[in-house]
Amino acid sequence: MASNQVIAATLVIFFTLLLQGNNNNVVEAQLTTNFYSTSCPNVLSTVQSAVRSAVKSEARMGASILRLFFHDCFVNGCDGSILLDDTSSFTGEQNAAPNRNSARGFNVIDNIKSAVEKACPGVVSCADILAIAARDSVVALGGPNWNVKVGRRDARTASQAAANSNIPPPTSSLSQLISSFSAVGLSTRDMVALSGAHTIGQAACRTFRPRIYNETNINAAFATTRQRTCPRATGSGDGNLAPLDVATPASFDNNYFKNLMTQKGLLHSDQELFNGGSTDSIVRGYSTNPRSFNSDFTAAMIKMGDISPLTGSSGEIRKVCGTTN
Ligand code: HEM
Ligand SMILES: *[C@@H]1O[C@H](CO)[C@@H](O)[C@H](O)[C@H]1NC(C)=O
């Protein structure tokens, strides 16, 4: 009798833990690192060499591809939806506010896809090509390496409305940043680590103008320098670019966090991570310990890549990334 009760209690605990294990928004998907190892054994080397040559001709392209992956995953999961081009009868995500005049790198992904299609037609999804290319971009700029989980399929739809509401704008407060990441199952620590992606790439004047003219938690000399190529008046120089990491914009390193500690974050949202709030200690930690940043960043990239993938017979394997089959 007593031992039956022990067994019953053990089963209750077991199933409770099992249910809790699935109780978050990052779906435990069937993605694996070896999904294409027999169906398309050269996919990794094909993507890697294309990314290397794209980054060699323009370092910023690595940043642009990394950002595309983030903007894909935050909008109904990592399903290649951002890659779908608008047509007269289809409105996708590319003209949503966070992407319009800003998201770039589509040609690189399209060209990789056609090279992969030649070797293994109809096998590798655009969503997976983007995930692999994002990793290769980080590595090509000197950042950490990790094994990319694959097996995603491509969406047949996209959502401009979801892109507008799910991708956080640079005007976000710390609590808004925390909640937009939490909405897709990512922790505050994941959010800070992933923001370290701003160690590479560029931002347009329109995204940081209010910060360099109106904010007080900014290094004065840094603000003056940025004002030189970003005029105060809306409509002039809106697209002028400045590096997100003032120190080493083409190297994937932890200087982004060091910049935040000297009030040289370019975006309002960047400086929110070190502005007297709960994430100050995380920023301080990453600024002194690049290995802890690298390991948290890679873990968070894998977690972001697990957001709601299409698997099994959901979605499709697109023939070209810009349009559904
Ligand atoms: C935490 C919230 C985030 C906000 C508010 C944000 C906002 C922005 C903005 C406004 C830009 C400049 C866009 C432009 O002017 O064209 C930018 C660029 C960029 N973002 Fe973020 N971002 C965030 C998180 C992330 C994450 C999680 C990643 C990737 C893991 C990422 C990767 C990048 C990269 C690499 C660039 C440079 C792109 C290029 O040079 O083409 N960002 N971001
Ligand atoms: C600075 O703030 C003032 C007052 O809110 C506003 O009118 C002005 O447009 C802002 N300037 C910039 C460059 O954001």
UniProtKB/TrEMBL annotation:
Ca(2+) 2 binds at residues 199, 245, 248, 253. The active site is at 71 (proton acceptor). Binds 2 calcium ions per subunit. It is an enzyme of class 1 (oxidoreductase). Ca(2+) 1 binds at residues 72, 75, 77, 79, 81, 93. Substrate binds at residue 168. The keyword Secreted applies. It is found in: Secreted. Keywords: Calcium, Disulfide bond, Glycoprotein, Heme, Hydrogen peroxide, Iron, Metal-binding, Oxidoreductase, Peroxidase, Secreted, Signal. Its EC number is 1.11.1.7. Its cofactor is Ca(2+); heme b. One of its GO terms (biological process) is response to oxidative stress. Residues 30-325 form the Plant heme peroxidase family profile domain. It catalyses: 2 a phenolic donor + H2O2 = 2 a phenolic radical donor + 2 H2O. The record marks 67 as: Transition state stabilizer. Disulfide bonds join 40-120, 73-78, 126-321, 205-230. Coiled coil: none annotated. GO terms for molecular function: heme binding; lactoperoxidase activity; metal ion binding. It comes from the Eukaryota. Heme b binds at residue 198. Residues 1-29 form the signal peptide. Belongs to the peroxidase family. Classical plant (class III) peroxidase subfamily. Belongs to the peroxidase family. Ascorbate peroxidase subfamily. This is Peroxidase. It comes from Arabis nemorensis. The lineage of its organism: Eukaryota, Viridiplantae, Streptophyta, Embryophyta, Tracheophyta.
